[in-house]
Every structure is written in C-alpha cells, then in structure tokens.
C-alpha cells in the first residue's frame, strides 16, 4: 500500500532539500583538477542520507545503523533485508502483504519524498520492503529513484540486502532487462515471475528452468492475488544468489569499471553498479562514494566520469539501456514462446460482437447458461454424487470405521466419525467431496473465459451498466474475482483508479458475492430443489448488486474514472494448460482450506460437548426463529460461516434434512449477504482503512439480517414454500 507523497512542508525538513546534480558542469571553476584550491567536497552536498520514518504502526520496531527492525535493545547482527523491486502493477504489494507480518512502518530516503513500506518477515528473521515501480535503473523519476537508491542507503545495511525482483509474466523481456541492471549491484537475487495465469491466457509459454539456468538464479512462480506459490516463495528466499550472467559494455565503459574496481573495492555494493550510476549522474551514488571513500576519491572519480562521457557517441544512459534491452531480448527468445495472433476472421468478428450491445448481451446470457450447466449440473451434481457414492460411501466410510472402531475411547471415536460433528464427516469429506469438484469446474470455466480474451470484452460491454453503480467496466475484474475468492477480490480493487470506485467495489464484493466454495455448495443444494429456489437466490444476488451499488454511488463521495483497457485478441484456449492451471489453483485452495475445515469441525464438536452450542441455541434460537423463521440448528451453521463461508454452507448441506426448503433459501441468502470469512474482513480493514472498513461491515450485517427477514416473511405471507 503506497503512501501518498509528502506535503510541501516536508521538503523544508532538515536533510530533505532536493540535492543538486553533481557533475563537473555544475561545480565552481577551479574544481576537480584546476589550479585553484577547491572548497571542501562536502560543501556541495546536503547532509548524508538519513533514514527517516514517516509513520510507524508497531512501537516494538526500531531502526539502527546496521540492523533491520527488531525488538528494542537488541544488538543482533544484520538480518536480511528483502527488497521487492519490479515494474508498476506487477504484484509487489500483494507479495509484500503476504510475506510481511503485522506491524509495518513507512520510511523515506533523504531528498526523495516517496515513502517505502517496510515490515518484518513472517516466521523468520529479516525485513521486506515494497519499493515503487521502476522500469530502468537510470530513470530520473522520483519514485524510480527511490527503488534504486534504497540499496545505497547506509541504514539499510547493503551488505545484508537481498533483491526479490518481481516480474509480470506477460512482459518477461522488460523484467529480464531489470534483472541484468540490478545484477550489477552484486547482491543475492531471486526472480519471481507473477501472474503466470494471465500469461498463459495470452498464449505465452515460459521455460522457467531454462530461465533460471540463463540467469544463474532461482526463479519462483506465483499468482500473488490468489496466494498461489507465495508459501513456496517464502521458503525459497534463502536460495537468493548473485546473478551469474552479466552484460559486457563498450570498451571505454569496461575500462572505467575495471579501474573503479581497483580504486574502490567492494563494500556491500559492487563498484560496477556504483560506476554505472556515477556515469549517469546519480547524486545518491555520489553521496555514497563521498560517505564511503572520502572527498578525494570522489573528485578523482568524477574526473574519470567526465572523460568517459566525453568520448561516447551517445548519452551513457541510452547506450546502457540499449545494451540491456538487446541482451534481455536474446534471453527472452530462448526461454519463452508466444502464440501468434489469430488470423481467423470468424474469431475476430466474434470478438467484435461480444462488445456490441445487440449481440453482446445474448452472447453473455448464452455463456452464463453454459457455465450453469457445466458447474451446476456436471460439477455440483454428477461429480459430487459420483465421488460421494462410488468413493466415500463404497470405500472410505467403511474403511475408516474399521480403523477407528478398535479405539477404546468413545470420545475420540465420536470426535472423528460422529455424523453431525465429527472431523471426517463434516470436515474432510465435505471439503474433498463437496467443495473440491465444484471449485475445480469453476476454475476450468474461468480459465477458458480468461484465456479466450472474453473477460476484457465483457468489461467493455458492461461499462455502461456499471456506470449506474459508480464503477466503469474495469469493475468487472474484482466482481468476477469475487466469485472465486472475496479476499483476493478486495485486493484486486487496486486496479480501480479512484477511492470512490475502490470503496464501492469492496462494499459490493463484501455484501452479495458468493465465493467459489460457497457457490459450489449452493449449487449442490439448489440443484435438489425446484427451479424457483434458484431463481429467488440468484435473482436476489443480482438485483441487490444493482440496488446496493446504485445507492452506494449516490452516497459515497468522489469521481468515477474513464475505462481504458488493453484488448487482447480473441483466440481458442488450449484445454490442457487451462485444466493444469485449474488443478493447480484447486490444489492450493484445498491445501489452505482443508485445515480450516478440520479446525472448524473440531471447534464446533468441542463446543457442543461442553454444552456451549445448546446454550447458544437456547439464547439465540427464539430470535432467529421469530425474525427469520429458522430452526435452532442454524446457530452452528452461522458459527462455521464466521470461520469460513464454505464451511458454514457445507454444514447447512450436512443438516439439510432438518430445514424446510424455505429455511434453506433464507439461510443461503443470509450466508451470501452476511460478512465473509475472517480473512476477507481483515483484508477489508487493511485495504480500506478502519473507518471505511467498519462502516462497510456494519452496513453489510444489518442489510443481510433485514433482507433475510424480508424473504422469510414475504414468502410466508404469499405461501411460497419452494416445494
């Protein structure tokens, strides 16, 4: 989360005056080699760079000269500083949120107003820093200078720094060029290729093993917005090592760098990186040289710099950038294959039809019907029933019973196999037999839509409709992502341009979008009921999305931005890569969700055994029954829902014989519109702030209770029972 730029009054603080570019053209006559006695070199510089804290949220963190933040009073050796570096919108902030523990501070460098978030790493020593986007080591843009100069700051302890370079898989060549530039620092590096699913959707295939071999560093792959690959990345941080492949420059530059290596031996940062920055007139590099080697050395080096600049045919930064781009292109050509754009006139025409109202709406409705048949009928009915009957009932239930029956403790037997509260029936089997097959089908369907290029065209089609709810067509991205995971959907609201749009999208996602696991079990339950139940539940979701969005657009202040999107070509997706990616996403989801299912089941089992569930049902039962017409067993459904949505709806499926069809519909409405799981709530407060987060949470809770009560009473008054 990037901090806003400091106000003008911060520029006046001591040590924050913008330093003058220091080269011989800006120095007084007689300096650097003339007959006149020069002034002390330090007189031409602001104070040496200081590490300023602009905000601190964890008072146990402190900054010392040569150590990362740690408990006050410790004198530990420098712990690793993992600096996230990469272009704009490549997923650095998502990775920062995933890698860092609670307690984050924001720091600035002298002369640069851009703040850099820094936090402790989770479950290991060290810190992680989230730098602004950077496209070139030699840029003069202030944000990009912060990303470059952070490695020269003395308080960061350069000798303990590690570079985690984050790449967008769709723009690999640009990332490789950055790798080659930052390789000159000589610091250990790790390359993280993010958004690999989006690259696959555009027909880009990358040989990551060969890429690692070409660069000589470890390459990790992630889908940061969904948390896929993040744990593996955290475990591989220790594998960071210096890049083995370096660029060979022109003869005059190589001679300069070789001479500099003799004059200024490496001290954390290699002299090659320092020399390249000095050649491009970087003031931070000049200050670093002054601080480390003294004014005499700086004077000598600046004279050498002038000689190299004078002898070159073009500006040094342009010459260097051209060489990096050429080398990056050679590497990219060896490690990636890009599917050529389609030449099919039918596909091109179909892409145009998808964006036109007269043809786009029927196409969208047709695709929606296909999705319902594939996910609802095939996944939620055929696959779920097949797994339950042919695998669980036929093999696993009898096998587990045979293993557990000899256990002498009846308590342990009930804890494991009790049909109402046991870990296996309500935890393991519901996750694997009910949620997993449907979410796998969802990811396959979503992958085909993404790979074909249809989702972007859907954004264009819905732009006019979304204007009514204060968004533009780009709002389709977080809303569709909400049908996958509400937590990640809130994170993807960052793609929206204004705070108004981000607040509206977060509110709508939090209010009425069922995540994939909830949608999966919902489809299983509704498939066994009359079609009127499905029309009611899905109709309420759609209508309340529009109504709540329209009201939010009127109430929430701010402006809506215009829609600007890159439109990929329409193409026929390749089934096997889509299925592999869906399997990978499903695996990571189950890997994360299964322990939570088990913990939720164990918690409810123990809560029931000590009498807590009965007491809670007795206390809340009359209110729930009177206001919403629900039985007392709904309490345990809501308890599991608070832990994780899909766990609660799976419990509803487990107890479906206790509820009438009307009560099931009311329960589904409540679980859809009530606040999502704890993870989503935490992310909401982190992204939107305490005030907006609390307001959204309270509004959503009251809205859900009111809507559930209205559905119950209206259906009872009109005699609708969904039977």
Automatic annotation (TrEMBL):
This is Magnetosome protein. The gene is feoB. GO terms for cellular component: plasma membrane. The chain crosses the membrane at residues 363-383, 395-416, 428-449, 469-492, 504-525, 531-553, 588-607, 664-685, 692-711. The lineage of its organism: Bacteria, Deltaproteobacteria. The keyword Ligase does not apply. Residues 79-243 form the FeoB-type G domain. Residues 14-23, 49-58 have a biased composition (Basic and acidic residues). Keywords: Membrane, Transmembrane, Transmembrane helix. GO terms for molecular function: ferrous iron transmembrane transporter activity; GTP binding. Gene3D superfamilies: P-loop containing nucleotide triphosphate hydrolases. Residues 1-75 are annotated as: Disordered.
């Amino acid at each position: 989360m990037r901090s806003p730029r400091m106000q003008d009054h911060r520029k006046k603080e001591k040590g924050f005056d913008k330093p003058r570019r220091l080269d011989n053209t800006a120095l007084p006559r007689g300096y650097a080699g003339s007959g006149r006695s020069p002034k002390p070199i330090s007189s031409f510089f602001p104070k040496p760079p200081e590490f300023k804290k602009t905000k601190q949220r964890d008072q146990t963190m402190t900054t010392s000269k040569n150590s990362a933040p740690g408990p006050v009073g410790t004198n530990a050796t420098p712990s690793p500083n993992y600096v996230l570096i990469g272009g704009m919108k490549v997923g650095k902030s998502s990775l920062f949120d995933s890698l860092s523990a609670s307690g984050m501070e924001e720091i600035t460098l002298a002369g640069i107003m851009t703040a850099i978030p820094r936090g402790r790493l989770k479950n290991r020593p060290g810190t992680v820093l989230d730098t602004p986007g950077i496209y070139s080591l030699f840029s003069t843009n202030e944000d990009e200078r912060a990303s470059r100069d952070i490695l020269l700051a003395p308080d960061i302890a350069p000798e303990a720094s590690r570079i985690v370079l984050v790449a967008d898989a769709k723009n690999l060549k640009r990332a490789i060029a950055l790798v080659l530039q930052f390789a000159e620092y000589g610091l250990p590096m790790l390359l993280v290729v993010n958004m690999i699913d989006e690259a696959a959707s555009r027909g880009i295939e990358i040989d990551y093993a060969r890429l690692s071999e070409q660069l000589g560093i470890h390459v990790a792959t992630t889908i940061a917005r969904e948390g896929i690959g993040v744990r593996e990345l955290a475990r591989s941080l220790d594998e960071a090592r210096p890049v083995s492949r370096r660029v060979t420059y022109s003869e005059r530059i190589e001679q300069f760098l070789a001479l500099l290596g003799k004059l200024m031996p490496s001290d954390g940062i290699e002299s090659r990186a320092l020399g390249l920055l000095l050649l491009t007139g970087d003031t931070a590099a000049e200050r670093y040289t002054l601080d480390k080697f003294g004014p005499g050395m700086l004077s000598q080096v600046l004279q050498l710099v002038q000689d190299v600049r004078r002898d070159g045919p073009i500006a040094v930064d342009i010459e260097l950038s051209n060489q990096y781009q050429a080398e990056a292109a050679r590497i990219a050509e060896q490690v990636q294959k890009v599917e050529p754009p389609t030449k099919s006139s039918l596909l091109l025409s179909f892409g145009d039809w998808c964006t036109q109202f007269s043809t786009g709406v029927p196409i969208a409705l047709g695709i929606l019907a296909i999705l319902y048949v594939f996910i609802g009928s095939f996944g939620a009915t055929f696959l779920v029933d097949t797994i339950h009957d042919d695998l669980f009932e036929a093999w696993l239930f009898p096998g587990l019973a045979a293993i557990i029956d000899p256990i002498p403790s009846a308590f342990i037997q009930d804890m494991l196999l009790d049909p109402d509260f046991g870990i296996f029936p309500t935890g393991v089997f519901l996750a694997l037999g009910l949620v997993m097959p449907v979410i796998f089908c969802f990811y396959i369907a979503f992958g085909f839509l993404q790979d074909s290029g249809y989702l972007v065209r859907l954004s264009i089609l819905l732009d006019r409709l979304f204007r009514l709810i204060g968004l533009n067509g780009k709002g389709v991205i977080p809303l569709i992502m909400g049908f996958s995971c509400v937590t990640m959907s809130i994170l993807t609201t960052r793609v929206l341009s204004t705070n108004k749009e981000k607040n509206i999208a977060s509110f709508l996602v939090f209010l009425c979008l069922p995540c994939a696991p909830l949608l999966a079990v919902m489809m299983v339950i509704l498939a066994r009921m009359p079609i009127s139940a499905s029309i009611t539940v899905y109709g309420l979701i759609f209508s309340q999305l529009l109504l709540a969005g329209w009201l939010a657009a009127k109430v929430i202040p701010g402006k809506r931005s215009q829609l600007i999107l890159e439109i990929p070509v329409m193409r026929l997706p390749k089934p096997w890569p889509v299925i592999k990616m869906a399997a990978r996403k499903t695996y990571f989801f189950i890997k994360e969700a299964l322990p939570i299912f088990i913990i939720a089941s164990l918690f409810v089992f123990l809560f029931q055994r000590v009498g807590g569930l009965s007491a809670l049902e007795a206390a809340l039962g009359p209110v729930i029954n009177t206001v919403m017409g629900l039985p007392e067993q709904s309490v345990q459904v809501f308890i599991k829902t608070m832990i994780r949505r899909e766990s609660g709806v799976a419990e509803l499926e487990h107890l479906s014989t206790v509820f009438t069809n009307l009560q099931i519909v009311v329960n589904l409405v409540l679980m859809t519109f009530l606040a999502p799981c704890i993870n989503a709530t935490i992310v909401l407060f982190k992204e939107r702030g305490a005030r907006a987060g609390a307001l959204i949470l309270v509004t959503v809770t009251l809205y859900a209770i009111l809507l559930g009560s209205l559905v119950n009473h209206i259906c009872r008054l009109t005699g609708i029972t969904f039977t």
